[in-house]
């Protein structure tokens, strides 16, 4: 199957095969009056319309993209899109001033979703997750990460991972799976976090099957959840089983999760609202992708992560939605872009990099997705407008006109 997209007013390539760090994040690799040739789902040529058409010697079905901008598909590298139930009451409690941790301490939070998820069967989880993927796709997300973590027992965690594995085969969005058994302490282990970590290492990790396509192990490294020592013990064991590492780090208090991520050379550290200057420096030095989740900070009325300082310190910064039923029941990419530009002081160029090539790097996929380069998968979006700068300017609005995944037009 072939496809030629020509006369692109602004072709934003985000060219590269690894995360962009520091000042590199502002380089989008723009081609005016651009064109992209695709064959069998792979990008085969990129350049100006005249250059690409001059190199073609066979017929290609065409899209005339005059008046539109073409970008790599967005990569949402941190979500929890498979879960049962909702927590609308907790949102109201937070509005009146109750803290996220105080709600967790009285049986709400993650444990509330755990109960609803344990009570949900495969079909129920599959259908709600599928509808959420449809919403991601409509906003230009062509690859999404999904975490388990709402079972906190072996049976339900496996069910979440199996739902993602099934959706990976049937839904056009690319899905990267992460095992997050250490998301909270389940009722069966109240007061015994070390015993729960022992359980995860001895009973859970050996059951993570390759056919589920699980790439990562994550842990909620936070005061009152899992300590630095407990998190490190679990992650080192996960590495022995071939899983790459992620951390929920320094979200509520400055615990030192960023430093732990650097020491373990994790693929990414996520949240980072209270990451220290030293943690930021170490992440930059060890090339840990700093994945920031501004929608969650917005929902919790917390200070935004210091993305500007992280970039200036040489970090590779990614942005992701953190869709989940508690602290962030939103997958709004348009809102995320607006917050990052207006309140986090990232430039539009840095935001686009963070949502494309750096999002791919946060999933260890920068060699195959995240940019418009020859040899990469043809995951792209056309905007309704002639420039990427309309994304923050037309704030809060979905301006994605066309979504292309593996060279196939999915939304138009």
Q: What this model shows, in words?
A:
- By secondary structure, the chain is an alpha/beta fold.
- The chain folds into two domains: about 110 residues, Urease, subunit C, domain 1 (Roll), CATH 2.30.40; about 290 residues, TIM Barrel.
- Helices cover about 35% and strands about 25% of the residues.
- The chain is built from 16 helices and 16 strands.
- Strands 1, 2, 3, 4, 5, 14, 15 and 16 form an eight-stranded mixed β-sheet that branches. The protein has an eight-stranded parallel β-sheet with strand order 6-7-8-9-10-11-12-13.
- Helix 7 links the parallel strand 8 and strand 9.
- Helix 5 packs across helix 6.
- The longest helix is centred in the first third of the chain and has 17 residues.
- The chain is globular.
- The mean pLDDT is about 95.
Layout of strands and helices, then pairs:
Blueprint lengths: L1 E11 L17 E10 L2 E7 H7 L6 E3 L4 E4 L1 E3 L11 H8 L4 H6 L4 H9 L3 H17 L2 E7 L6 H17 L3 E9 L10 H12 L9 E8 L6 H13 L3 E6 L7 H8 L3 E4 L5 H10 L2 E4 L1 H7 L6 H6 L4 E3 L13 H10 L5 H8 L1 H6 L17 E4 L6 H4 L6 E6 L2 E4 L1
Parallel strand pairs: 1-4, 1-5, 6-7, 7-8, 8-9, 9-10, 10-11, 11-12, 12-13
Antiparallel strand pairs: 1-2, 2-3, 5-14, 14-15, 15-16
